[in-house]
Amino acid sequence: MGRRTLVISDIHGCYEEFKELLESVEYRPIEDELILLGDYCDRGFMSKEVVEYVMTLCLEGDVKCLRGNHDQMLLNALDNINDASFLRNGGITTIESYCGSDWFDPVMRYEFDRYCEGKDYMLANYQTHIDFLRTLPFYYENDAFIFVHAGLNPEYGLNWKNQSERDFIWIRDPFYKYPTKVDKTVVFGHTPTKNFHDSNDVWYGDGIIGVDGGCCFGRQLNCLEIIDAKLQTYAVKRRTN
Fold this sequence. Notes:
Elements (H helix, E strand, L loop, with lengths): L3 E5 L6 H10 L8 E4 L10 H14 L1 E4 L3 H10 L4 H6 L2 H9 L12 H14 L1 H9 L3 E3 L3 E4 L16 H6 L2 H4 L8 E4 L14 E2 L3 E3 L9 E8 L2 E8 L4
Parallel strand pairs: 1-2, 2-3, 5-6, 6-8
Antiparallel strand pairs: 1-9, 4-5, 7-8, 9-10
């Protein structure tokens, strides 16, 4: 039997569920390959803990960490680029995770100056986390699979590596509504599987596999296990909404 590969995506600050999922699949850092498809922060309440844990996992075993659109939005916000997109997509919970749940005044909860102070606090105290996120690649591939956060732009065909960084972390409809034109199965997150079938479980399409169970929306966190050509799935339900 070949080596076991475990694929998880869109953790979104759901730290307890992430740990529980790794425990349930009996993750073995020395023996297993762990592939994380991005979106470690935002929406869930424990982004800091997730990033810290992922960094620790990288030191302990063979872990491939990819970049997601939410990770990029956080980096952009810290660089004072497009704060509005970060805030609109759950960034406040990331600031609270790093700065404290009482960082914002209950009355003036989203006061912009306080938000900017929160970014400064992160830059002053969590530079190692920020540097780690900046190093994350946009894809990983092996002999049989391409792993990516959002998907591949079919216009690029076999030259998919030349697509834009934005496509790797943001693409939706053009990817999963049209053939990929690649000779490997594409495993992706980003778009919750509920959008493809009436379930939060892993979704199997034509040459593509979606693993985002929408945990941050109160659903579940999925794990796709790959051993040779055999696929199996695991999931843990969201503990709190």
